[in-house]
Amino acid sequence: MRHGKKFNHLGRQTAHRKAMLANMACSLIEHKRINTTVAKAKALRKFVEPLITKSKEDTTHNRRVVFSYLRNKYSVTELFKEVSVKVGDRPGGYVRIIKLGNRQGDNAPMAMVELVDYNELYNPKGNKAKKSTRRSRRGGAKKVEAAVETTTSQEEE
């Protein structure tokens, strides 16, 4: 019986699965976005989010714990220097999975995995352009511009 055994084995032995998830996590940290299958993406999210949480507090112990999972010095440095600064105020949910459709060769469902704070399209804080609201279609903006011009001319006098 498999009571309480929830994580996906991905059809691999333990060592192969851990090495694959470590490599995928290093690629995600380095490139900020990768394409993979949906099952691997969900497994990667469970693997990498606790590591990002640990990277918020830069201590020697946390670096060693993260290094024991990732086994890549460059990725650990990148995670603690750049990624943790960007996600410092976020309480969780650092990874976004976007489904892309099926792969042409074997029809496997594909997904794009990305770090949330690095995508400017979905990030509401990243859009700095203020939207102008249009209240009426009858030329109200012309009246406002004329009023602004008259007030500035009065201030100059």
Task: Write up what this structure looks like.
It comes from Tenacibaculum aiptasiae. Keywords: Ribonucleoprotein, Ribosomal protein. Belongs to the bacterial ribosomal protein bL17 family. It is built from 5 helices and 3 strands, in the order αβαααββα. With 157 residues, it is of the alpha+beta class. The chain has a domain at 14-118: Alpha-Beta Complex (50s Ribosomal Protein L17, Chain: A), CATH 3.90.1030.10. It has a 3-stranded antiparallel sheet with strand order 1-3-2. A hairpin with a 6-residue loop joins strand 2 (95-102) and strand 3 (109-115). The longest helix is centred in the first third of the chain and has 18 residues, at 14-31. It starts with 13 loop residues before the first helix and ends with a helix. The mean pLDDT is 87.
List the helices and strands and how they pair.
Elements: H1 14-31, E1 33-37, H2 38-55, H3 60-70, H4 73-86, E2 95-102, E3 109-115, H5 140-156
Antiparallel strand pairs: 1-3, 2-3
Keywords:
157 residues, alpha+beta, 50s Ribosomal Protein L17, Chain: A, three-stranded antiparallel β-sheet, globular, structural constituent of ribosome, Large ribosomal subunit protein bL17, ribonucleoprotein, Ribosomal_bL17
